[in-house]
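User: My advisor, Dr. K., asked me to get a structural model of this assembly before our group meeting. I'm new to this, so sorry if the format is off. These are the inputs:
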Amino acid sequence: MKALSQKRRHPLAVLALLVMALLLTGGLYAVATTTNEAKAETTTYSAQDIEEGQKLFMANCSTCHGVNAAGSEAGPSLIGVGAASVDFQVGTGRMPMQMHGPQAQVKPAQFNDEQTKQLAGYVASLGAGPAVPEEEYLDVTEGDSANGAKVFLANCAMCHNAAGAGGALTRGKYAPSLMGVDEAHIYEAMQTGPQNMPVFNDANITPEEKRDVITYLKALDNNTNPGGFGLGSLGPVSEGLLIWSLGLAVVIGFTVWLTSRSA
Amino acid sequence: MSSTTDYEYRPRTSSGRIANFVDTRAGVSPMVKEFGRKIFPDHWTFMFGEVALYSFVILLLSGTFLAFWFDPTMTSLEYDGSYVPMQGVEMSGAYASTLHISFDIRGGLFLRQLHHWSALMFVMALSVHMLRVFFTGAFRRPRELNWVVGCVLFLLAIVAGFSGYSLPDDVLSGNGLRIADAMLKAIPVVGTYMSMFMFGGEFPGLAIIGRLYIAHVLIIPALILVMIVVHLFMVVVHKHTQYPGPGRTENNVVGFPVGPVYAAKAGGFFFIVFGLLATLAATTTINAVWNYGPYDPSPVQAGSQPDFYMGFPDGALRLMPGSWPFSWEVSIFGWAVPLAILLPLLPIGLLFVAMFAYPWIERWVTKDNRVHNVLDRPRNAPFRTGIGAAAVAFYAVQMMAASSDLIATHFHVGLNDVTYWLRAAYFLGPILAFIIARRMCLALQRKDREIVLHGRESGRIQALPHGEFVEVHEPLDEYKRYRLVNFEDMEVQPARANAKGKVSGTEKLRGRLSSWYFEDRVAPVTPKELDAAHGHHEDHTREVVGAGSHQAQLDK
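Assistant: The format is fine. Below is the predicted structure of the whole assembly, which you can bring to the meeting.
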C-alpha cells in the first residue's frame, strides 16, 4: 500500500487511473448490456439438444463458420450471436445460404423446428447472446398497433417501405418484404440485426414496442385492403404502370371500337 | 304592334312554345346550326384529347365532393377516427381529414380514388394526345398557337397533379414537397427567398397546405378551364385535321357531323371513360395515404416516388452523380450554386423550350409555310418521327430512373448498376431512339413503295412450266394505293444567299439541318413509275419476287 501511495505523483499515474476508469466503465457496460439481452434466455436446451445441434452444425455449417463456430474467411464467427440469430437465419431458410451474394436470400427452411432448436441450443452454448423471444412478446392480441405504426414509421419504413413491402439498398442489397413473416422472426430480426439490418436492442425498442410493431405488421397483413387491389403496396410506380398499360389499352380498345365504322 | 307579331313563329304545343321562348332569347338554334354541322373525322387516334377532357370533367366532379370534407390546415390534432393504427397519433388537420374522407365518409374512399385515377388518366391521355399531334404534324400552320396552348395545358396538368398529391400532408407527399423546395432553393441568389416566400418561412411551416389548396382547387383548374376553352375554340376555327385518303384534301373535312352522330358518340364515350375510371377506383387502391403516416420531415420511406408525371425531374436528380468526378457544390462570388440539382434540371428545361418552339423550328428548317389540314403519317416524316422518339426516350429514361429502387428489387439487380445503366441510357437512349425510329420510317416508306409498285405478297407459290417458282403478287386497289402515294415529297432546301448576295451563318445552319432532315428521303411513287411497273406486269402477267423493285430504283 505504501508503494502505491509513493507512486501516486508519478507522471504516468493519471494515465493509469484513466485506463482503469475506462476499463471499469466499459466492463460494467458490457456486463449491463449482456445481462439485458441474456435476461430473455428462458428457453432451455438439454445437453442432448446441444450435442445433436453440434452434429448438425459440423455437417452443415462448419464449412463456412469453422469447426468451432469461430468463423473463417467465408463466414463470421457465431460465438455470442445467440439462439435468436440462429432461429431467424435457419428458421427463415436464409442459412444455410443458397449462394454467395450481396445478402442471404429467403428460401424454404432446410431444417425442421426440432433441428433448428438443436442448432440454436448449440450456438447459444458457445457464448451468451440474445435468446429466442418469449411468447408474451409475440402475442399480437396484447399489442397496440397505433403505437406500432408510430415506431415502425419512425424506425423501419425507410428501408422496408411504409406498408412493409420492402425496398432496395445499395449494391444489390435489399430490405425484404415483411408480409407473411412469422412473429418470432420479426422479433428476432429486430433483436439481432441480420444481413444489413441494424440491431434494435431492448434499450432502443423495448420488447413491448417490438410487440406493437409486430401487431401493426400483422394488422397490415391480415386486414383486407380498404381500397381494393393493393398493387403490391408499392406506391405511385405501380399505379403509373397500371394506367399506362391496362388503362391505355382499354381506352385504345374503346376508341378503336367507336371509330370502327368510319366515314 | 300587330304587324310584327304576324311574322313571329307561333308553336302550337306548349313544349314548342317553351323551346321557342328560350331560343328567341338565348339564340340557341344558330349555335346548334353551326356546331351541329361541324364535321369530325373518324380515327381512333383523334379521341385521346376527348379522354383528357372527360377525365378533367370527372376531376371537377369528384374534386368538388372531396372539397366538402377536406380541411386544408396544418394545425396539429389527435386522430380519433376509425382507422385503428392511426388512433391517438398526432397529425395535421389535412391528413386527419383525408383519413376521415377515406374511412368515415360514405363513398369517400371511392371518390378519393376516382379523383386520383382520373388525374393519372388526365395526364396520360393528354400526353398521348400531344404525341399524336406531334407525330402526325398537326402542329403545323395554322395550328402552331394551339400547339402552344396544348403545351401550357400539359404543364398546368403537371402542376395540378403535384399540388393535389401534396395536399394530404402524409410522409410521401411531404417528401415530394421537400424535393420541390430543394429545387427552388437551388436557384442561385433568389432561390432561398422564393422558398421562404412559398412556404411562409422555413420548410415546412404551417402555410403551404392552405396555399397549395387554393392553387389546386381554384387557380389551376380555372387556368386549365380557360386554356381548354381557347383550345377547343381554336379547334372549331381551324376545323379538324384528317389523315390522307381518297377524297380528302386540304380544303375539306371528311367525317361525321356532330349532330347527331358525334354528339351521340362523344356523349357515350364520356360515360365509357367515367365507367372505366369508376371501375378502377372501386377495385384498385391508389395512394394509400393511411400507410404513410402524418408528415414528419425526418423520415424518408423506401419506395418513395412521385406520381408518374413528376417522375422525370425526380429521376434526373437520382441520375446525377453526387460528387463525381468532382464536387458539384461550387461557389460563385460567395453564392453557393448546387450544380448537382441545377445541372440535371437544365436539359429538362431545354426539352420544354424545344417542345414549345418546335412548330417554328420545323417551319424555319423546311421553309414550309403552307396551311396543312391533311396530316402526315409518321413514317412519311422520318426525321420528325426520329426527333419525337428521341424526346420520348429522353423523358422515359428519366421517368424510369425515378423508380430505380423498385427496378432493383423486382428484377434482382443492384441499385447502383441500375443507376449506371440508366446514366448511359440518358445519353445514348435518345440517339439510339432517333436512329432506330428514323430507319424504321424509311424502311416502312420503302415497303409502301414496294407494295404500290408490285402489289401485296399473296403467299401463293406457283411452279412455272420450266420449273421456276414464283410468288403471286396481288395488285392494290386504287383507294388503298392512294393512301400510300399521297404524301408530300419534302426536299432538301439548301442554304441560299440573301438579298445582299451573302449566305449568312444561320442560313448555312438551316441548310445543313434541312439536308439532315431530308437527304435520305424516300419519294412517293410517281404515276410514271407506276405505269412503268404496270407495263412490266403486262409482259409477265405475274410479278416475280423482288425483281421489279431494283429495276424501279434504277429507273429512278
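One thing worth pointing out at the meeting: Chain B touches chain A through 74 residues (CB under 8 Å).

User: Perfect, thanks a lot.
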